[in-house]
Protein backbone atom coordinates (compact mmCIF):
# COMPACT_ATOMS: atom_id res chain seq x y z
CA UNK A 1 0.00 0.00 0.00
CA UNK A 2 1.39 3.35 -1.04
CA UNK A 3 1.20 6.56 0.99
CA UNK A 4 -2.01 8.40 0.24
CA UNK A 5 -3.99 5.19 -0.29
CA UNK A 6 -7.20 5.52 1.73
CA UNK A 7 -6.67 1.95 2.95
CA UNK A 8 -3.07 2.57 4.09
CA UNK A 9 -1.79 1.69 7.53
CA UNK A 10 -1.88 4.68 9.85
CA UNK A 11 -0.86 5.66 13.38
CA UNK A 12 1.85 7.40 15.34
CA UNK A 13 2.37 4.87 18.15
CA UNK A 14 2.89 1.12 18.12
CA UNK A 15 -0.59 0.56 19.55
CA UNK A 16 -2.20 2.82 16.92
CA UNK A 17 -0.32 1.14 14.07
CA UNK A 18 -1.28 -2.34 15.31
CA UNK A 19 -4.92 -1.30 15.66
CA UNK A 20 -4.87 0.14 12.15
CA UNK A 21 -3.62 -3.16 10.70
CA UNK A 22 -6.22 -5.13 12.66
CA UNK A 23 -8.96 -2.87 11.34
CA UNK A 24 -7.77 -3.30 7.75
CA UNK A 25 -7.72 -7.09 8.23
CA UNK A 26 -11.21 -7.11 9.79
CA UNK A 27 -12.60 -5.05 6.89
CA UNK A 28 -10.97 -7.25 4.27
CA UNK A 29 -8.70 -4.51 2.96
CA UNK A 30 -5.82 -6.81 3.93
CA UNK A 31 -6.40 -10.46 3.07
CA UNK A 32 -4.73 -13.58 4.48
CA UNK A 33 -1.29 -13.93 2.93
CA UNK A 34 -0.95 -10.25 2.00
CA UNK A 35 2.52 -8.83 2.74
CA UNK A 36 2.93 -5.87 5.08
CA UNK A 37 5.44 -3.13 4.25
CA UNK A 38 9.01 -3.71 5.47
CA UNK A 39 9.65 -2.11 8.86
CA UNK A 40 11.89 0.64 7.49
CA UNK A 41 9.45 1.47 4.71
CA UNK A 42 6.49 1.64 7.10
CA UNK A 43 8.43 3.80 9.57
CA UNK A 44 9.38 6.24 6.79
CA UNK A 45 5.81 6.26 5.45
CA UNK A 46 4.33 7.11 8.87
CA UNK A 47 7.17 9.36 10.06
CA UNK A 48 7.86 7.24 13.16
CA UNK A 49 10.99 5.63 14.58
CA UNK A 50 11.84 2.19 13.23
CA UNK A 51 11.48 0.69 16.73
CA UNK A 52 7.87 1.87 16.83
CA UNK A 53 7.07 -0.09 13.69
CA UNK A 54 8.95 -3.11 15.07
CA UNK A 55 6.90 -2.98 18.28
CA UNK A 56 3.66 -2.78 16.29
CA UNK A 57 4.54 -5.83 14.21
CA UNK A 58 5.55 -7.77 17.32
CA UNK A 59 2.22 -6.99 18.97
CA UNK A 60 0.39 -8.14 15.84
CA UNK A 61 2.43 -11.36 15.75
CA UNK A 62 1.71 -12.09 19.42
CA UNK A 63 -2.02 -11.70 18.79
CA UNK A 64 -1.90 -13.96 15.74
CA UNK A 65 -2.91 -11.30 13.20
CA UNK A 66 0.32 -11.58 11.22
CA UNK A 67 3.11 -14.10 10.79
CA UNK A 68 6.74 -12.98 10.89
CA UNK A 69 8.81 -14.93 8.34
CA UNK A 70 12.26 -13.46 8.90
CA UNK A 71 13.87 -12.44 5.61
CA UNK A 72 10.63 -13.40 3.82
CA UNK A 73 8.90 -10.48 5.57
CA UNK A 74 5.65 -10.20 7.52
CA UNK A 75 2.31 -11.37 6.16
CA UNK A 76 -1.29 -11.41 7.29
CA UNK A 77 -1.94 -14.77 8.95
CA UNK A 78 -3.86 -17.32 6.92
CA UNK A 79 -7.12 -18.76 8.26
CA UNK A 80 -7.06 -21.64 5.80
CA UNK A 81 -7.68 -25.09 7.23
CA UNK A 82 -4.54 -27.19 7.56
CA UNK A 83 -4.29 -30.87 6.61
CA UNK A 84 -5.32 -33.20 9.42
CA UNK A 85 -3.78 -36.51 10.43
CA UNK A 86 -6.24 -39.39 10.03
CA UNK A 87 -7.96 -38.06 6.90
CA UNK A 88 -6.57 -37.65 3.41
CA UNK A 89 -8.22 -35.48 0.78
CA UNK A 90 -8.56 -36.90 -2.73
CA UNK A 91 -9.95 -35.73 -6.06
CA UNK A 92 -13.66 -36.55 -6.37
CA UNK A 93 -14.46 -39.47 -8.66
CA UNK A 94 -18.08 -40.46 -7.98
CA UNK A 95 -17.90 -43.22 -10.57
CA UNK A 96 -15.28 -44.97 -8.44
CA UNK A 97 -17.37 -44.95 -5.26
CA UNK A 98 -15.47 -44.94 -1.98
CA UNK A 99 -11.70 -44.84 -2.42
CA UNK A 100 -9.39 -47.23 -0.57
CA UNK A 101 -7.80 -44.94 2.03
CA UNK A 102 -4.01 -45.25 2.28
CA UNK A 103 -3.50 -41.76 3.69
CA UNK A 104 -4.95 -41.89 7.19
CA UNK A 105 -1.86 -43.11 9.06
CA UNK A 106 -4.06 -44.95 11.56
CA UNK A 107 -2.98 -48.06 13.47
CA UNK A 108 -4.67 -51.41 12.83
CA UNK A 109 -7.55 -51.80 15.35
CA UNK A 110 -6.95 -55.56 15.45
CA UNK A 111 -3.44 -54.94 16.80
CA UNK A 112 -4.49 -52.60 19.63
CA UNK A 113 -4.73 -54.41 23.01
CA UNK A 114 -8.20 -54.85 24.50
CA UNK A 115 -8.66 -52.30 27.28
CA UNK A 116 -11.66 -54.04 28.87
CA UNK A 117 -9.77 -56.45 31.16
CA UNK A 118 -7.82 -53.58 32.74
CA UNK A 119 -10.83 -51.30 33.12
CA UNK A 120 -12.23 -52.87 36.31
CA UNK A 121 -8.87 -52.61 38.06
CA UNK A 122 -8.49 -48.99 36.93
CA UNK A 123 -11.65 -47.92 38.75
CA UNK A 124 -10.76 -47.11 42.35
CA UNK A 125 -11.37 -44.42 44.90
CA UNK A 126 -12.19 -40.93 43.56
CA UNK A 127 -9.19 -38.66 42.99
CA UNK A 128 -9.68 -35.21 44.54
CA UNK A 129 -8.28 -31.74 43.91
CA UNK A 130 -4.77 -31.19 45.18
CA UNK A 131 -3.58 -34.77 44.73
CA UNK A 132 -0.44 -35.61 42.73
CA UNK A 133 -1.03 -35.29 38.99
CA UNK A 134 0.69 -38.64 38.29
CA UNK A 135 -0.71 -41.85 39.76
CA UNK A 136 2.08 -43.20 42.02
CA UNK A 137 2.17 -46.73 40.56
CA UNK A 138 2.15 -45.40 37.00
CA UNK A 139 4.95 -42.97 37.84
CA UNK A 140 7.23 -45.83 38.91
CA UNK A 141 6.56 -47.64 35.63
CA UNK A 142 7.14 -44.47 33.59
CA UNK A 143 10.47 -43.80 35.28
CA UNK A 144 11.68 -47.24 34.26
CA UNK A 145 10.42 -46.58 30.70
CA UNK A 146 12.24 -43.27 30.27
CA UNK A 147 15.34 -43.69 32.47
CA UNK A 148 17.61 -45.31 29.82
CA UNK A 149 16.96 -42.50 27.33
CA UNK A 150 17.36 -39.25 29.30
CA UNK A 151 20.60 -37.41 30.17
CA UNK A 152 22.55 -39.08 32.94
CA UNK A 153 23.42 -37.15 36.06
CA UNK A 154 20.45 -34.76 35.78
CA UNK A 155 17.38 -34.41 37.99
CA UNK A 156 14.66 -35.75 35.69
CA UNK A 157 11.06 -34.64 36.23
CA UNK A 158 7.92 -36.28 34.82
CA UNK A 159 4.74 -34.64 33.52
CA UNK A 160 1.65 -36.11 31.85
CA UNK A 161 -0.32 -34.46 29.07
CA UNK A 162 -3.25 -35.37 26.83
CA UNK A 163 -1.13 -36.84 24.06
CA UNK A 164 2.12 -35.92 22.35
CA UNK A 165 0.61 -33.01 20.39
CA UNK A 166 -0.65 -31.49 23.64
CA UNK A 167 2.79 -31.96 25.20
CA UNK A 168 4.61 -30.23 22.35
CA UNK A 169 2.11 -27.36 22.32
CA UNK A 170 2.58 -26.78 26.06
CA UNK A 171 6.35 -27.14 25.90
CA UNK A 172 6.61 -24.54 23.15
CA UNK A 173 4.13 -22.20 24.85
CA UNK A 174 6.10 -22.16 28.12
CA UNK A 175 9.35 -21.35 26.29
CA UNK A 176 8.35 -19.10 23.37
CA UNK A 177 6.30 -16.08 22.40
CA UNK A 178 4.69 -15.42 19.04
CA UNK A 179 7.28 -14.69 16.40
CA UNK A 180 9.97 -16.84 18.00
CA UNK A 181 11.71 -19.31 15.69
CA UNK A 182 11.38 -23.10 15.96
CA UNK A 183 13.52 -25.62 14.08
CA UNK A 184 11.30 -28.33 12.54
CA UNK A 185 12.06 -31.31 10.34
CA UNK A 186 11.20 -30.79 6.67
CA UNK A 187 9.12 -32.71 5.66
CA UNK A 188 7.34 -32.56 8.99
CA UNK A 189 4.61 -34.28 11.01
CA UNK A 190 1.27 -32.57 10.29
CA UNK A 191 0.41 -31.91 13.93
CA UNK A 192 3.74 -30.16 14.55
CA UNK A 193 3.11 -27.88 11.57
CA UNK A 194 -0.32 -27.02 12.96
CA UNK A 195 1.01 -26.41 16.48
CA UNK A 196 3.70 -24.01 15.30
CA UNK A 197 1.38 -22.10 12.96
CA UNK A 198 -1.42 -21.79 15.51
CA UNK A 199 1.09 -20.65 18.14
CA UNK A 200 2.35 -17.91 15.83
CA UNK A 201 5.91 -19.21 15.85
CA UNK A 202 8.29 -18.96 12.90
CA UNK A 203 9.14 -22.38 11.47
CA UNK A 204 12.73 -22.88 10.31
CA UNK A 205 12.86 -25.95 8.03
CA UNK A 206 15.66 -28.46 8.66
CA UNK A 207 16.12 -31.05 5.90
CA UNK A 208 15.67 -34.75 6.67
CA UNK A 209 17.57 -37.48 4.84
CA UNK A 210 17.76 -41.26 5.33
CA UNK A 211 19.61 -40.77 8.65
CA UNK A 212 17.21 -38.17 10.05
CA UNK A 213 17.55 -34.43 10.66
CA UNK A 214 20.73 -33.08 9.07
CA UNK A 215 23.46 -31.50 11.20
CA UNK A 216 24.15 -28.70 8.71
CA UNK A 217 20.45 -27.87 8.56
CA UNK A 218 20.16 -27.75 12.34
CA UNK A 219 23.25 -25.57 12.61
CA UNK A 220 21.79 -23.12 10.09
CA UNK A 221 18.47 -22.97 11.96
CA UNK A 222 20.22 -22.29 15.28
CA UNK A 223 22.35 -19.57 13.69
CA UNK A 224 19.12 -18.02 12.37
CA UNK A 225 17.80 -17.79 15.93
CA UNK A 226 15.83 -20.96 16.67
CA UNK A 227 14.90 -21.01 20.35
CA UNK A 228 13.46 -24.53 20.23
CA UNK A 229 14.00 -27.71 18.20
CA UNK A 230 11.42 -30.45 17.63
CA UNK A 231 13.01 -33.68 16.42
CA UNK A 232 11.83 -37.28 15.90
CA UNK A 233 14.77 -39.57 16.72
CA UNK A 234 13.19 -42.64 15.08
CA UNK A 235 10.34 -43.48 12.69
CA UNK A 236 10.19 -39.85 11.55
CA UNK A 237 6.77 -39.01 10.14
CA UNK A 238 6.40 -38.95 7.14
CA UNK A 239 9.80 -40.22 5.90
CA UNK A 240 10.34 -43.16 8.28
CA UNK A 241 13.95 -42.04 8.90
CA UNK A 242 15.69 -42.94 12.16
CA UNK A 243 18.85 -41.33 13.48
CA UNK A 244 22.03 -43.29 12.86
CA UNK A 245 24.59 -43.35 15.67
CA UNK A 246 26.84 -41.05 13.64
CA UNK A 247 24.06 -38.54 12.90
CA UNK A 248 22.92 -38.44 16.53
CA UNK A 249 26.50 -37.68 17.60
CA UNK A 250 26.77 -34.90 15.00
CA UNK A 251 23.53 -33.32 16.21
CA UNK A 252 24.65 -33.51 19.85
CA UNK A 253 27.84 -31.68 18.88
CA UNK A 254 25.82 -28.93 17.16
CA UNK A 255 23.46 -28.57 20.14
CA UNK A 256 26.35 -28.49 22.61
CA UNK A 257 27.02 -24.94 21.40
CA UNK A 258 23.43 -23.96 22.29
CA UNK A 259 22.75 -25.55 25.71
CA UNK A 260 19.75 -23.36 26.54
CA UNK A 261 17.79 -24.02 23.34
CA UNK A 262 14.79 -26.20 24.19
CA UNK A 263 15.16 -29.61 22.48
CA UNK A 264 11.95 -31.66 22.24
CA UNK A 265 12.46 -35.30 21.27
CA UNK A 266 9.17 -36.73 20.02
CA UNK A 267 9.43 -40.50 20.39
CA UNK A 268 5.80 -41.09 19.40
CA UNK A 269 6.42 -44.60 17.96
CA UNK A 270 8.46 -45.99 20.91
CA UNK A 271 7.39 -49.63 21.53
CA UNK A 272 6.43 -50.11 17.88
CA UNK A 273 9.77 -48.98 16.51
CA UNK A 274 12.23 -51.44 15.00
CA UNK A 275 15.06 -48.92 15.48
CA UNK A 276 17.02 -48.06 18.65
CA UNK A 277 16.35 -44.74 20.38
CA UNK A 278 19.28 -42.38 19.95
CA UNK A 279 19.07 -39.11 21.84
CA UNK A 280 20.55 -35.83 20.60
CA UNK A 281 20.55 -34.34 24.11
CA UNK A 282 23.99 -34.32 25.71
CA UNK A 283 24.63 -34.56 29.46
CA UNK A 284 25.30 -30.81 29.75
CA UNK A 285 22.24 -29.62 27.84
CA UNK A 286 20.03 -27.47 30.08
CA UNK A 287 16.60 -27.40 28.37
CA UNK A 288 15.19 -30.64 26.99
CA UNK A 289 12.11 -32.86 26.90
CA UNK A 290 11.48 -36.48 25.90
CA UNK A 291 7.85 -37.05 24.85
CA UNK A 292 6.30 -40.53 24.56
CA UNK A 293 2.67 -41.12 23.70
CA UNK A 294 0.62 -44.33 23.92
CA UNK A 295 -1.69 -43.43 21.01
CA UNK A 296 -0.02 -45.47 18.28
CA UNK A 297 -0.14 -48.75 20.23
CA UNK A 298 -3.06 -48.29 22.71
CA UNK A 299 -5.23 -46.27 20.32
CA UNK A 300 -5.70 -42.55 19.58
CA UNK A 301 -8.66 -42.35 21.97
CA UNK A 302 -6.40 -43.02 24.98
CA UNK A 303 -5.03 -39.48 25.05
CA UNK A 304 -1.98 -39.75 27.26
CA UNK A 305 1.66 -38.83 26.83
CA UNK A 306 4.61 -38.96 29.21
CA UNK A 307 7.07 -36.06 29.20
CA UNK A 308 10.44 -36.36 30.93
CA UNK A 309 12.22 -33.01 31.27
CA UNK A 310 14.85 -31.00 33.08
CA UNK A 311 13.60 -29.33 36.30
CA UNK A 312 13.24 -25.82 34.87
CA UNK A 313 11.16 -27.00 31.93
CA UNK A 314 9.08 -29.17 34.27
CA UNK A 315 8.35 -26.24 36.59
CA UNK A 316 7.29 -24.02 33.69
CA UNK A 317 5.21 -26.82 32.19
CA UNK A 318 3.47 -27.37 35.54
CA UNK A 319 2.20 -23.78 35.42
CA UNK A 320 0.08 -24.84 32.43
CA UNK A 321 -1.33 -27.89 34.24
CA UNK A 322 -3.85 -27.48 37.04
CA UNK A 323 -5.75 -29.91 39.24
CA UNK A 324 -9.06 -31.08 37.84
CA UNK A 325 -8.86 -29.14 34.55
CA UNK A 326 -5.81 -29.74 32.39
CA UNK A 327 -4.30 -32.75 34.12
CA UNK A 328 -4.63 -36.27 32.71
CA UNK A 329 -7.36 -38.36 34.33
CA UNK A 330 -6.04 -40.88 36.86
CA UNK A 331 -8.54 -43.31 35.42
CA UNK A 332 -6.76 -43.11 32.05
CA UNK A 333 -3.39 -43.43 33.77
CA UNK A 334 -4.44 -46.56 35.64
CA UNK A 335 -5.99 -48.00 32.49
CA UNK A 336 -2.82 -47.44 30.44
CA UNK A 337 -0.66 -48.81 33.24
CA UNK A 338 -2.87 -51.86 33.65
CA UNK A 339 -2.61 -52.71 29.95
CA UNK A 340 1.10 -52.01 29.56
CA UNK A 341 2.17 -54.18 32.48
CA UNK A 342 0.38 -57.20 30.99
CA UNK A 343 2.73 -59.52 29.10
CA UNK A 344 0.07 -60.44 26.52
CA UNK A 345 -0.56 -56.78 25.70
CA UNK A 346 3.15 -56.07 25.29
CA UNK A 347 3.45 -59.10 23.02
CA UNK A 348 0.58 -57.81 20.85
CA UNK A 349 2.22 -54.37 20.65
CA UNK A 350 5.47 -55.98 19.52
CA UNK A 351 3.52 -58.05 17.01
CA UNK A 352 1.98 -54.82 15.69
CA UNK A 353 5.39 -53.24 15.21
CA UNK A 354 6.59 -56.30 13.32
CA UNK A 355 3.44 -56.37 11.19
CA UNK A 356 3.79 -52.72 10.14
CA UNK A 357 7.47 -53.24 9.29
CA UNK A 358 6.79 -56.42 7.31
CA UNK A 359 3.99 -54.87 5.26
CA UNK A 360 6.13 -51.83 4.47
CA UNK A 361 9.04 -54.04 3.43
CA UNK A 362 6.82 -56.15 1.18
CA UNK A 363 5.29 -53.05 -0.44
CA UNK A 364 8.78 -51.64 -1.00
CA UNK A 365 9.84 -54.91 -2.66
CA UNK A 366 6.82 -54.90 -4.99
CA UNK A 367 7.25 -51.24 -5.92
CA UNK A 368 10.95 -51.75 -6.61
CA UNK A 369 10.07 -54.66 -8.89
CA UNK A 370 7.65 -52.31 -10.71
CA UNK A 371 10.43 -49.82 -11.41
CA UNK A 372 9.92 -47.53 -8.40
CA UNK A 373 13.02 -48.16 -6.25
CA UNK A 374 12.20 -47.85 -2.56
CA UNK A 375 13.74 -48.77 0.79
CA UNK A 376 11.25 -48.99 3.65
CA UNK A 377 12.04 -46.90 6.71
CA UNK A 378 10.67 -47.33 10.23
CA UNK A 379 7.15 -46.31 11.20
CA UNK A 380 3.59 -46.95 10.16
CA UNK A 381 3.82 -45.58 6.61
CA UNK A 382 5.96 -45.57 3.47
CA UNK A 383 7.60 -42.49 1.92
CA UNK A 384 7.53 -43.20 -1.80
CA UNK A 385 9.69 -41.19 -4.27
CA UNK A 386 8.14 -40.56 -7.70
CA UNK A 387 9.49 -39.54 -11.11
CA UNK A 388 6.92 -36.73 -11.47
CA UNK A 389 4.87 -34.40 -9.21
CA UNK A 390 2.88 -36.26 -6.59
CA UNK A 391 -0.31 -34.26 -7.22
CA UNK A 392 -0.48 -35.63 -10.76
CA UNK A 393 0.05 -39.18 -9.54
CA UNK A 394 -2.57 -38.73 -6.82
CA UNK A 395 -5.21 -37.77 -9.36
CA UNK A 396 -4.44 -40.84 -11.46
CA UNK A 397 -4.50 -43.10 -8.39
CA UNK A 398 -7.92 -41.72 -7.42
CA UNK A 399 -9.20 -42.77 -10.84
CA UNK A 400 -7.92 -46.25 -10.02
CA UNK A 401 -9.65 -46.31 -6.62
CA UNK A 402 -6.89 -45.24 -4.18
CA UNK A 403 -6.73 -42.28 -1.79
CA UNK A 404 -3.22 -41.21 -0.76
CA UNK A 405 -1.35 -38.25 0.72
CA UNK A 406 1.13 -36.20 -1.22
CA UNK A 407 4.36 -34.94 0.26
CA UNK A 408 3.19 -31.36 -0.32
CA UNK A 409 1.10 -31.51 2.87
CA UNK A 410 4.20 -32.17 4.97
CA UNK A 411 6.42 -29.44 3.51
CA UNK A 412 7.59 -26.39 5.45
CA UNK A 413 9.81 -24.47 3.06
CA UNK A 414 7.89 -21.53 1.51
CA UNK A 415 7.81 -21.59 -2.27
CA UNK A 416 9.19 -25.12 -2.45
CA UNK A 417 8.91 -27.07 -5.68
CA UNK A 418 5.96 -29.50 -5.88
CA UNK A 419 6.69 -32.66 -3.94
CA UNK A 420 7.64 -35.87 -5.72
CA UNK A 421 6.69 -38.08 -2.77
CA UNK A 422 3.63 -39.93 -1.49
CA UNK A 423 2.99 -41.14 2.04
CA UNK A 424 1.21 -44.50 2.03
CA UNK A 425 -0.16 -46.54 4.94
CA UNK A 426 -0.37 -50.11 3.65
CA UNK A 427 -0.43 -52.38 6.70
CA UNK A 428 -3.99 -53.61 6.07
CA UNK A 429 -3.34 -54.63 2.44
CA UNK A 430 -2.84 -58.32 1.74
CA UNK A 431 -1.46 -60.32 -1.17
CA UNK A 432 -3.30 -59.49 -4.38
CA UNK A 433 -4.48 -56.10 -3.12
CA UNK A 434 -0.92 -55.02 -2.32
CA UNK A 435 0.22 -56.24 -5.73
CA UNK A 436 -2.58 -54.26 -7.40
CA UNK A 437 -1.50 -51.11 -5.52
CA UNK A 438 2.09 -51.55 -6.72
CA UNK A 439 0.97 -52.03 -10.32
CA UNK A 440 -1.45 -49.09 -10.19
CA UNK A 441 1.10 -46.79 -8.59
CA UNK A 442 3.75 -47.69 -11.15
CA UNK A 443 1.29 -47.08 -13.98
CA UNK A 444 0.17 -43.75 -12.45
CA UNK A 445 3.78 -42.63 -12.07
CA UNK A 446 4.45 -43.30 -15.76
CA UNK A 447 1.36 -41.57 -17.22
From TrEMBL:
<protein>
    <submittedName>
        <fullName>Transcriptional regulator PtsJ</fullName>
    </submittedName>
</protein>
<dbReference type="Pfam" id="PF00155">
    <property type="entry name" value="Aminotran_1_2"/>
</dbReference>
<keyword id="KW-0663">Pyridoxal phosphate</keyword>
<dbReference type="InterPro" id="IPR000524">
    <property type="entry name" value="Tscrpt_reg_HTH_GntR"/>
</dbReference>
<keyword id="KW-0238">DNA-binding</keyword>
<keyword id="KW-0804">Transcription</keyword>
<comment type="similarity">
    <text>In the C-terminal section; belongs to the class-I pyridoxal-phosphate-dependent aminotransferase family.</text>
</comment>
<dbReference type="InterPro" id="IPR036388">
    <property type="entry name" value="WH-like_DNA-bd_sf"/>
</dbReference>
<keyword id="KW-0805">Transcription regulation</keyword>
<dbReference type="GO" id="GO:0030170">
    <property type="term" value="F:pyridoxal phosphate binding"/>
</dbReference>
<dbReference type="InterPro" id="IPR015424">
    <property type="entry name" value="PyrdxlP-dep_Trfase"/>
</dbReference>
<dbReference type="InterPro" id="IPR051446">
    <property type="entry name" value="HTH_trans_reg/aminotransferase"/>
</dbReference>
<feature type="domain" description="HTH gntR-type">
    <location>
        <begin position="11"/>
        <end position="79"/>
    </location>
</feature>
<dbReference type="GO" id="GO:0003700">
    <property type="term" value="F:DNA-binding transcription factor activity"/>
</dbReference>
<dbReference type="GO" id="GO:0003677">
    <property type="term" value="F:DNA binding"/>
</dbReference>
<dbReference type="InterPro" id="IPR015421">
    <property type="entry name" value="PyrdxlP-dep_Trfase_major"/>
</dbReference>
<dbReference type="Pfam" id="PF00392">
    <property type="entry name" value="GntR"/>
</dbReference>
<dbReference type="InterPro" id="IPR036390">
    <property type="entry name" value="WH_DNA-bd_sf"/>
</dbReference>
<dbReference type="InterPro" id="IPR004839">
    <property type="entry name" value="Aminotransferase_I/II_large"/>
</dbReference>
